[in-house]
Design a protein that fits this description.
The complex is a heterodimer of chains A (159) and B (232). By secondary structure, chain A is α+β, with helices and mostly antiparallel strands. Chain A is built from three helices and nine strands. In chain A, strands 2-3-1-5-4 form a five-stranded antiparallel β-sheet. Chain A has a four-stranded antiparallel β-sheet with strand order 6-7-8-9, with no helix packed on it. In chain A, helix 1 packs across helix 2. In chain A, 42% of the residues are buried. Chain B has a single domain, classed as Alpha-Beta Barrel (TIM Barrel). Chain B has nine helices and nine strands. In chain B, helix 8 crosses helix 9. The radius of gyration of chain B is 17 Å and the shape is globular. The chains are: A alpha+beta (159), B alpha/beta (232). At the A-B interface, helix 1, helix 2, strand 5 and strand 9 of A face helix 1, helix 2, helix 6 and helix 8 of B.
């Protein structure tokens, strides 16, 4: 197929996302893409999601932290941002999505906003609310495993 | 801009984790929604460790105006920000008619429990009404449509009455927090303009600042203050 003339090619914007979840979440690019599409369609409807035309280009999430690059049409970044705010879980795993920034090319988005693999996660035991618990520590952030699931804490809560 | 958060044991994240996340998202602070009877928290330590303000708030969750009234009297002197969780019409009415209450939260959890009379009372008594974006962010289908239509009705009522508004995503864990810019974008989609959302997020801080001033030693009554005497 012949390429479109340059002035008719779609213009894109690239949203660099920071992601956070509980450390046991296993989420892949496809699952995240599906949730992002659902969220877009649910919030903006079919015409809105066609206009935003969102797709997930890069995705990584491990041990509760990750990042992604999402491509949307230029001029629709705000609506995409609103839709992405409504992605609250993927396959039952709660997830926090934050837009770190918007760029005109993938490369600029990567260089400016992607930080690569996050701090090493180490498994440790902490005293949390009067009990000795297994926990996963990433920098100052500590995810404590309790009987009712993970609890988000920081170093400050575990001393 | 502030976010009002549910912390452990009523949520899945501690105050410190909420504060660290809020700092990353671009909030100026968090308001803790503790409940009557919670253990005392060392918020000063969190405030020192994070770059954001942490406001000592309490949210009264009562079955009716009778027990809410008791809690409000007991808790007012000890907390910077006092919220009453709305619900049925009687509790909503009690909250907006009490000048000692700062914020009526989740006023539309029971549909039809908020009306123009209550909106006017909220304006008169300077009780802020919460726009809870939680159900918009975290539900879909029928429940979300109902949440949106209640929010729309609530907006019309408070705009007409000129009652103060606070906005929150009501996060129960740090994963449920959304950054201010995300909330602005969401607001635009659901008919709240950016300024309204910004003002609603900022008002938490304004109320906290006002109450801290009122609770400081220099404050005697509105308009009456003790000024430090100059050194001779």
């Amino acid at each position: 197929m012949k390429h479109l003339p340059k002035h008719l090619q779609p213009r894109w914007r690239y949203l660099a996302l920071g992601l956070e979840s509980w450390p046991d979440a296993e989420v892949g690019r496809r699952a995240f893409q599906r949730e992002a599409w659902y969220a877009t369609q649910n919030l903006l409807g079919d015409p809105g999601s066609a206009a935003v035309d969102l797709s997930v280009l890069r995705f990584s999430l491990a041990d509760g932290a990750g990042e992604a690059i999402v491509r949307v049409r230029r001029g629709e970044t705000d609506r995409a941002r609103a839709a992405l705010a409504c992605v609250d879980e993927v396959d039952g795993d709660p997830i926090r999505v934050r837009v770190r920034g918007v760029s005109g090319t993938v490369r600029a988005a990567e260089e400016k906003y992607m930080r690569g693999p996050s701090d090493d996660t180490e498994e440790t035991r902490v005293a949390f609310r009067g009990a000795d618990r297994r926990a996963l520590r990433r920098g100052d952030r500590v995810d404590v495993e309790t009987d009712g699931g993970f609890r988000g804490a920081t170093r400050l809560d575990c001393e | 801009m502030y976010e009002a958060v549910h912390a452990v044991p009523h949520g899945a994240s501690t105050v410190a984790r909420h504060a660290a996340t809020a700092a990353e998202s671009g909030f100026d602070g968090v308001v803790v929604r503790s409940r009557p009877g919670d253990d005392a928290r060392d918020l000063a330590a969190v405030r020192d460790a994070c770059d954001v303000d942490v406001v000592d708030g309490v949210e009264v969750v009562a079955d009716g105006p009778g027990s809410a009234r008791g809690h409000v009297g007991n808790l007012r002197p000890d907390h910077t920000l006092l919220m009453v969780r709305g619900g049925d019409a009687a509790t909503n009415r009690f909250a907006v008619e009490s000048p000692r209450v700062d914020v009526l939260t989740a006023p539309t959890s029971d549909s039809g429990a908020f009306n123009h009379v209550l909106a006017r009372a909220a304006a008169e008594n300077d009780v802020a009404v919460e726009f809870d974006l939680g159900p918009v962010l975290r539900s879909d289908g029928g429940p979300r449509v109902r949440a949106l239509s209640r929010l729309r009705k609530l907006r019309e009522l408070v705009e007409d009455a000129g009652a103060p508004v606070v906005v929150s995503a009501g996060p129960t864990s740090h994963l449920e927090q959304r950054a201010p810019r995300e909330l602005f974008a969401l607001g635009r989609e659901i008919g709240l303009d950016e300024d309204a959302v910004r003002e609603g997020l900022s008002r938490w801080g304004d109320i906290a600042a006002r109450n801290r001033h009122r609770q400081s030693d220099a404050f005697v009554a509105p308009g009456v203050e003790v000024e430090r005497e100059d050194e001779p």
